[in-house]
Amino acid sequence: MPKVELLYFAGCPAYRRARQAATDAMRAAGLDGGPAMVLVRHERDAHALDFHGSPTVRIDGRDVDPEGLARSPAVGLYSRTFSWRGKTFDTPPAEMIASALRRAM
């Protein structure tokens, strides 16, 4: 079973929607529960976790949006955006997470 994590910072306006999207994608893949929630509290945590913005969803340690990760600024506590099928989102869509889950499985 793949390990799904959601990394976020306190005050992130999108992490709750990301948690729901990850939970929906996991259920669609036949997995119980939701993502492991990882609160990134400080810049030093961000560096230790290689955190490139909130919300970040990782499956088995891999970002669900590797192309977006490559475009992201340096490690730090900031909000992140995601591009999926020509649209921009403030959280990874469930379909993006589901696609990453299929690759991991």
List the helices and strands and how they pair.
Elements: E1 4-8, H1 15-28, E2 36-39, H2 43-49, E3 52-54, E4 56-59, E5 62-63, H3 66-71, E6 76-79, E7 82-84, E8 87-89, H4 94-104
Overall pLDDT level: 94
What does the main sheet amount to? 4 strands, mixed
CATH class: Alpha Beta
Query: Can you name the CATH architecture?
Result: 3-Layer(aba) Sandwich
Shape: globular
Assembly of the depicted chains: single chain
The N- to C-terminal Cα distance equals 7 Å
Number of strands: 8
Low-confidence stretches: none
Calculate Rg over CA atoms: 13 Å
Strand order of the largest sheet: 2-1-4-5
- Which structural class best describes the helix and strand composition? alpha/beta
- Indicate the percent of residues in helices: 25-40%
| CATH domain topology | Glutaredoxin
Percentage of residues in DSSP E strands: 25-35%
Query: What is the string of helix and strand elements?
Result: EHEHEEEHEEEH
Domain count, please report it.
Answer: 1
Number of helices: 4
